[in-house]
Automatic annotation (TrEMBL):
<dbReference type="InterPro" id="IPR037522">
    <property type="entry name" value="HD_GYP_dom"/>
</dbReference>
<dbReference type="InterPro" id="IPR052020">
    <property type="entry name" value="Cyclic_di-GMP/3'3'-cGAMP_PDE"/>
</dbReference>
<dbReference type="InterPro" id="IPR009061">
    <property type="entry name" value="DNA-bd_dom_put_sf"/>
</dbReference>
<dbReference type="InterPro" id="IPR043128">
    <property type="entry name" value="Rev_trsase/Diguanyl_cyclase"/>
</dbReference>
<dbReference type="Pfam" id="PF13487">
    <property type="entry name" value="HD_5"/>
</dbReference>
<dbReference type="InterPro" id="IPR001789">
    <property type="entry name" value="Sig_transdc_resp-reg_receiver"/>
</dbReference>
<feature type="domain" description="GGDEF">
    <location>
        <begin position="528"/>
        <end position="666"/>
    </location>
</feature>
<dbReference type="Pfam" id="PF00990">
    <property type="entry name" value="GGDEF"/>
</dbReference>
<dbReference type="GO" id="GO:0003677">
    <property type="term" value="F:DNA binding"/>
</dbReference>
<dbReference type="Pfam" id="PF00072">
    <property type="entry name" value="Response_reg"/>
</dbReference>
<feature type="modified residue" description="4-aspartylphosphate">
    <location>
        <position position="427"/>
    </location>
</feature>
<keyword id="KW-0597">Phosphoprotein</keyword>
<dbReference type="InterPro" id="IPR011006">
    <property type="entry name" value="CheY-like_superfamily"/>
</dbReference>
<dbReference type="GO" id="GO:0000160">
    <property type="term" value="P:phosphorelay signal transduction system"/>
</dbReference>
<dbReference type="InterPro" id="IPR011990">
    <property type="entry name" value="TPR-like_helical_dom_sf"/>
</dbReference>
<feature type="domain" description="HD-GYP">
    <location>
        <begin position="176"/>
        <end position="371"/>
    </location>
</feature>
<dbReference type="InterPro" id="IPR029787">
    <property type="entry name" value="Nucleotide_cyclase"/>
</dbReference>
Length: 666
């Protein structure tokens, strides 16, 4: 056997090379030898293989130059020559398959050639996932009608993404990232134009993924990358025929494969223009499933990037609550239930829990809107950055607000006077007007003085914050801010305004609007039952006629004082007191406290009401009006709970209370 092998010295002599050169080529693998002891031995056929490899390499180098010059056809001829001389030339097979694959996207005639070249690579590299994925795409291309404007799409995407790449390199600059978000949003609009069922959802999804990332404790840079990915992960759909995307009936197997190809196509597009890997992973893997039955790579569990797991949940939720040609939209709770059914199989349960927590308030709002036709609050967003305004608008609309945007101070003023918004969100920097001047104008104008103004701005000094608040703003929130915090602040301001408008000026207690709002909020929390005590005074008209309205007001103040005292000492922390109007009041408490509080309130009123009468009237036990006797004021209470019945609004409580006069003062 040893006699058939050549020594390294014999190889050097045959090839007419220096011995040191042969040693180097052996170490690098260009010449394949067998290490025996301290020396090398070579099969006689290795000389022919080496010479073929060298000749093949020369043709491969020519092909690379042609391809770089845009001469794809010349490159193909050189690569074919390279492979015919040395079929094992892996880099030539790879480059040829890449050229065929790109041509197959626009010309079906190249699909068989691309498939053949890819399978040749799998023969000597069977575990190559990228080649396997490309074969899946080729299969879908068999079913996909040719799209003539691929080059136009590629050009548009590259023109948009290249500025984004510059933005993404400046990780600490908020303004630069705003530019990146704006560009990503433009890309999403291109997809929405093609797939109408995605229309308007990208901004909401970007808000959602940020909220989930915050709940899970992801870093600031991870969250920003996720927000960009939420805009662009479906860009691959631009290469899919609209007839398939909008097909109302059942999709064929080939059409399903076609749609599934969009994640790989999207990743390829963005990889070619150099987007960061954390964004590329979201684009490629947002349809993977925890059980490994997703696509395109069949990843399992923690192998799926966290960003892709987040986007999968948000994408699925968006599809569930949207109308499709083959079904209507699900409710918020219905969609969340569907997500939970897929937890551990399709979706990450941690992500679902974080998502559920992030939209808890939003879900409650949708429940209440579904039960009662509540007129939405109007919010005007004044910001010349489309992404910021769009993200806030999307978030507020999902919270049930009617949100509108304006990019200049002048257009904002026109809209404010025209639509009379309930609240204004104002960016401190406007292109045409000083925001301080706008705040002063709105706060001094009687028509707008009651409209709360929330100012948002990049972090400035404490003096800047004081200055904007002194100019008439009601709140100040520095960028970057959490959208959930912004919504919470908006709700707080609107509750204050509602209370100020609704509160009874005499007693300071909340009126009917706040009463109905409180009842609605409690109805939405199905885990807790509650009860209502409705209170009114007997013979109050006669008291007013005899003692006058000023004394009547003192009686109403006394009732309010008694209610506050009793609730403070014997009620719950979340009990509610309201003044419906006139001598009618309401207390909302837990069902178990209804009877006890009712008795305490009436007893305390009986004990203290005598202080509002003359001594003679108290001694007689009545007052005279037109010679007619009227008893000393007493208090009646009517009670009801939703413990054993469905109650959906204040009117239902009124109906039940009228039927159940469970305690009436003597």
């Amino acid at each position: 056997m040893m006699e058939d092998l050549l020594t390294i010295e014999e190889i050097a002599t045959i090839l007419r090379l220096k011995l040191l050169t042969v040693y180097r080529w052996v170490e690098s693998g260009k010449i394949r030898g067998i290490k025996i002891g301290k020396g090398w031995r070579f099969k006689k056929g290795e000389i022919e293989r080496f010479l073929n490899d060298q000749e093949s390499q020369a043709h491969h180098d020519c092909a690379v130059k042609f391809y770089q010059q845009g001469k794809a056809n010349e490159a193909i001829l050189s690569l074919k020559e390279s492979i015919s001389i040395y079929p094992e030339k892996k880099e030539s097979c790879l480059l040829l398959s890449e050229i065929y694959f790109e041509k197959a996207k626009d010309n079906k005639e190249y699909i068989p050639l691309a498939e053949k070249s890819l399978r040749q690579i799998l023969d000597f590299d069977p575990d190559n996932l990228e080649i396997t994925s490309k074969l899946k795409i080729l299969f879908s291309l068999h079913e996909m009608p040719v799209i003539e404007n691929h080059n136009n799409i590629n050009t548009k995407i590259k023109n948009l993404v290249q500025p984004m790449m510059k933005a993404l390199t400046a990780y600490g600059d908020n303004d630069v990232f705003e530019e990146a978000y704006k560009i990503a949003n433009s890309l999403s609009k291109m997809v929405e134009e093609k797939d109408a069922y995605l229309s308007g959802h990208s901004e909401k999804k970007s808000v959602y993924v940020a909220a989930i990332a915050n709940e899970l404790g992801l870093s600031h840079s991870q969250t920003r990358a996720l927000q960009i990915a939420a805009f662009i992960y479906d860009v691959g759909k631009l290469y899919i025929n609209e007839e398939i995307l909008k097909k109302p009936g059942k999709l064929t197997e080939g059409e399903i494969k076609t749609i599934q190809s969009h994640s790989i196509v999207g990743e390829k597009i963005f990889r070619d223009v150099g987007l960061p890997d954390d964004i590329l992973k979201c684009v490629r893997h947002h349809h993977e499933s925890l059980d490994g039955k997703g696509y395109p790579d069949g990843l399992k569990g923690e192998d799926i990037p966290i960003g892709a797991r987040i986007i999968k949940v948000v994408d699925a939720f968006g599809a569930m609550v949207s109308s499709r040609p083959y079904r209507g939209p699900l409710s918020f709770d219905g969609a969340l239930s569907e997500l939970r059914l897929g937890a551990g199989r399709d979706f990450d349960s941690r992500v679902i829990d974080a998502f559920s927590g992030a939209i808890a308030e939003e879900r409650n709002l949708f429940r209440s809107v579904s039960r009662k036709n509540v007129k939405p609050k109007k919010v005007l967003i004044v910001d010349d950055e489309p992404w910021t305004a769009g993200a806030i608008k999307g978030s507020l609309e999902m919270e049930g607000f009617e949100a509108m945007t304006s990019q200049t101070g002048e257009s904002a003023l026109q809209k404010i006077y025209e639509i009379k918004p309930n609240l204004v969100i104002l960016d401190v920097f406007l292109p045409d007007m000083d925001s301080h001047s706008l705040c002063r104008r709105l706060s001094r104008d009687p028509r707008t003085t009651n409209i709360p103004i929330v100012v948002i701005s990049t972090a400035g000094s404490i003096d800047d914050e004081i200055a904007i608040l002194e100019s008439g703003a009601d709140d100040y929130l520095p960028k970057p801010f959490n959208l959930r915090e912004l919504v919470a602040r908006i709700n707080a301001h609107l509750r204050r305004i509602d209370h100020e408008k609704d509160a009874n000026p005499l007693t300071g207690l909340s009126g009917t609007t706040c009463i109905e709002s409180d009842i609605l909020k409690r109805i939405n929390d199905s885990s807790k039952k509650f009860g209502m005590i409705r209170i009114d005074l007997d013979n109050f008209k006669a008291f007013n006629d005899v003692y006058g309205f000023l004394h009547g007001d003192e009686v109403l103040k006394l009732v309010a004082e008694i209610l506050r005292e009793i609730i403070k000492t014997s009620g719950n922390e979340d009990d509610f007191i309201g003044h419906i109007g006139g001598d009618n009041f309401v207390v909302i408490t837990s069902p178990d406290n209804v009877d006890m509080l009712s008795k305490q309130i009436t007893s305390e009123f009986d004990r203290r009401i005598h202080s509002c009468y003359h001594k003679d009237d108290v001694q007689r036990g009545y007052i005279l009006r037109d010679k007619e006797r009227h008893s000393i004021l007493t208090m009646s209470t009517e009670c009801a709970t939703n413990r054993d019945r469905d109650i959906y609004n204040y009117q239902d409580f009124e109906r039940v209370a009228n039927d159940m006069k469970c305690c009436v003062a003597k």
